[in-house]
Write a structure and sequence with these properties.
By secondary structure, the protein is mainly alpha-helical. It is built from four helices and two strands. The chain has a two-stranded antiparallel ribbon with strand order 1-2. The longest helix has 34 residues.
């Protein structure tokens, strides 16, 4: 162990594990990852068409998606009868409007957009984590 500045730098020997324990830890992490992904998929499937975990912000985005499908990107702040308008950036509710056009239901379309976005980001993170491993191993040779 060496001391540099304010932090402590540990060499690799301080963190080495017996090979059998390392394999068991990796298998445990892999099993936990599979259980987590399957659980997320099960919750997504069971609650795909109900209002589970939909809060006031999601409801506002769905309402704005309805405006988009009616031809109004931003509702007026005051139309003489009621207050409206928004400060939200349009990407989210434009995507929800597209999902509603595809599915015919605003809630299911919005949840489908969220599920596709989360799955895409998970795949991107998985791909990038594999890239950084390959870069670090090739750089050390």
């Amino acid at each position: 162990m060496t001391r540099q500045g304010r932090g402590t730098v540990l060499d690799g020997s301080a963190w080495s594990l017996p090979p059998r324990l390392a394999v068991l830890l990796l298998q445990g992490v892999a099993a936990l990852s599979v259980v987590t992904i399957v659980s997320w998929g099960l919750v997504a499937f069971v609650h795909g068409a109900d209002s589970y975990h939909v809060n006031h912000v999601g409801g506002a985005w769905v309402g704005l998606a309805r405006y988009v499908n009616d031809g109004v990107l931003y509702p007026p702040l005051y139309d003489g009868h009621s207050f409206g308008g928004t400060r939200y950036m349009p990407l989210q509710f434009l995507a929800y409007a597209g999902g509603a056009e595809e599915t015919g239901d605003y809630l299911v379309g919005a949840k489908l957009v969220v599920y596709l976005t989360a799955t895409s980001l998970f795949g991107l993170i998985s791909a990038c984590s594999g890239c950084s491993d390959a870069r670090s191993s090739s750089g050390s040779a």
